[in-house]
Design goal:
The chain has 203 residues and is of the alpha+beta class. It is 52% helix and 6% strand. It has 2 domains: 75 residues, 3-Layer(aba) Sandwich (Glutaredoxin), CATH 3.40.30; 117 residues, Glutathione S-transferase Yfyf (Class Pi), Chain A, domain 2 (Up-down Bundle), CATH 1.20.1050. A 4-stranded mixed beta sheet has the order 2-1-3-4, covered by helices on one side. It is globular, with a radius of gyration of 17 Å.
């Protein structure tokens, strides 16, 4: 089993953190997206959509998409639980994971990809107005999550889950997009301090 990875992209990092939380050792093969290594014939044969991350199993099966990879690892290595305990909890974790993905991670990514000159090679065309609009969307999500986190320790409840991993990667990625987290979101900052201090955050 091996993970096709880009050290600078948020989605591969989400998988790396998930792997670290599980205590697994999975070798990685680095694909430099900025050098367009994801568009080579060899990598396209593994994932025709030319995206990372991809988890390739020992039998050659290639699993693309971040959450699909995490789902496979959750099923094959169930402890610690990162995607919910029981039917209702699993549904809640999935809900919050999608909330964070759509309302925080994606706006951060759109802001960066449409405003950073170096990323013009990946985002054609860049639309500056769309990038700026998504800056506001990301900050709205931060303020909303701040209110939610006043009632619980983590994004989806009392336990650290994949939803926290996604949000952590979004916040760290926001620095590159020059999205500054407001001072007044004290609950959000408390949560960020907690999750970023976990050993897995260094993955």
């Amino acid at each position: 089993m091996k993970l096709y990875n880009d050290r600078n992209a948020p989605n591969p990092r989400r998988v790396r953190i998930f792997i670290a939380e599980k205590g697994l050792q999975i070798p990685t093969i680095d694909i430099d997206v900025m050098k367009e290594e994801h568009r080579t014939e060899a990598f396209t044969a593994i994932n025709p959509l030319q995206k990372v991350p991809v988890l390739q199993l020992d039998d050659g099966t290639a699993i693309a998409e971040t959450v699909a990879i995490c789902r496979y690892l959750e099923e094959t290595h169930p402890d610690p639980v990162l995607m919910g305990k029981g039917t209702i909890d699993r549904a809640k974790v999935e809900m919050w994971q999608r909330h964070v993905e759509f309302h925080l991670l994606y706006p951060v990514a759109h802001c960066l990809r449409h405003l950073h000159p170096r990323l013009a090679v990946l985002e054609k065309p860049q639309v500056a107005e769309w990038g700026e609009a998504n800056r506001d969307k990301a900050l709205d999500a931060v303020r909303w999550l701040d209110r939610e986190l006043a009632t619980r320790a983590f994004i989806a409840g009392d336990d650290f889950t994949i939803a926290d991993i996604t949000a952590l990667c979004a916040v760290d990625f926001a620095r590159f997009a020059r999205i500054d987290i407001p001072e007044e979101v004290t609950q959000f900052k408390r949560w960020y301090t907690d999750v970023s201090s976990r050993a897995s955050a260094a993955a």
